[in-house]
Amino acid sequence: MKTIVIDPGHGGTDSGAYFQGAFEKDFNLSIARKVRDYLRTHYDSNLLLTRENDKTMSLSQRTDFANARNADFFLSIHNNAGGGTGFESYIYNGAVPQQTITYQTVIHNETMKAVQSKYNIRDRGKKRANFHVLRETKMHAMLLEVLFVDNSHDLALLNNTTFIEDVSKGIAIGVAKALSLPEKQPVSPSPGVMYKVIAGSFKSRDNAENRVQFLDSKGIDSFIVTTTISGQTYYRVQAGAFSSRDNAESLVNELKQLGITDAFIISEGQTSGAPKPPTPEESFSILGNTHLRAHQLDDFVRSINPNAPTLGNFYLKYGQIYGIRADVAFAQALHETDYFRFTGVVHENQNNYAGIGATGTDNHGATFTSQDEGVHAHLQHLFAYASTDAIPNGQPLVDPRFNLVTRGSATTWTQLNGKWAVPGTTYGQSILSIYQKMIDYTLKELTTQKNELESVLGQLEKQ
After folding, report:
1. Over the stretch 74-123, which tens digit does the pLDDT of each residue have?
2. How far apart are CA 350 and CA 362, in angstroms?
3. What is residue 44's three-state secondary structure?
4. Choices 1.10.530.10, 3.40.50.1820, 2.60.120.260, 3.30.70.270: CATH for 294-441
5. CATH class of the domain comprising 3-178
6. I need a labelling partner for 213 at 20 to 30 A (CA). Which of 142, 237, 281, 357 fits?
7. d(Cα 155, Cα 80) in Å, to the nearest integer?
8. Catalytic option among 145, 336, 348, 454
């Protein structure tokens, strides 16, 4: 099995090129991760990154890393700067094997094939240079310059998640073809197991019927199945059943493209070890309606921390823009900040209510200019996980790690486990536990207010 080292350029204190709030190092890491993930999913190979996060690395550390692992290929990913536009690739300008030249041709051409006509990308050519990472590596090595950070047209593409996906896929396919990587063989279906695709589970049959009608309008046949979980009746909308899990996952992805973020798979027919259907908690989506009001969010947190800032209006504002359950996002902020007491690594003046980018005492994470921007970044980061859609029109990119997220990889709160927090095996459950406390508190307060009003009304009637 061939070993491939992918090197995201810059990192840590070395930001690379900078323009209009964008750092080259972030784009480098985003593309490198997606290239790795695509190759890992589709081909047999040993894939390594020189850095997995925002880490400072010298050029020597990068080449030493690859040389120590006897890698077969080294690929360094960068963005350009200096007033130009387009894509170019480099190999060492000294003596190199003919195979290195062939690798450059294949990878360069496949990358341009993926993006040139679709995005009007200029091909700046296959070049050679005396770069350290090309000269000091003991294997075939190549460096890519993916567009110009300081060009407004190119920067708009680098901030476009669809472009990042396309260019990363093109690079990955080029690497696979150049190195003749063997494709992964599909896993044979388990005998007797059926994978059923559930396009939503509802307590109301009317809502289930509405989902069936929507799917019918999109040419997808479905029907309602009644099931009972913990004594509660649910109406599931089943949209298909397959002997192959790959086919079931393909339909789930299709449903998510239609905006059905609560689709999931259940398997039936295994005699042992069969996965249980998701509980209501496991199916509670990030996208959805907000039920608590702004003042109720603020009242709850101030019942615990009287000095807490009043952020409820900001959460409802951006929850509506992004279609996210803002009250649950608020519960997540309480979990991250210890009810806005900031007893962890993030400081209060950072306005970072979601711990974005914070990894420990040596890295306190991102800082935002205002409470409004901090809440916006939180909801935008959730949107990156929960949806594959573009950022809503008119909204700036304020989350510095938006392009580092695998879009649509967590559509429910419990699917954030191990993603937002590592290992975080109960991270989503902790958020929902706080949300339940918020609801209980609000219901208690409403009951008290109702009783007080009824008492006042009784006194008035006696007048």
Report:
1. 999 999 999 899 999 999 999 999 999 999 999 999 999 999 999 999 99
2. 15
3. coil
4. 1.10.530.10
5. alpha beta
6. 281
7. 10
8. 145
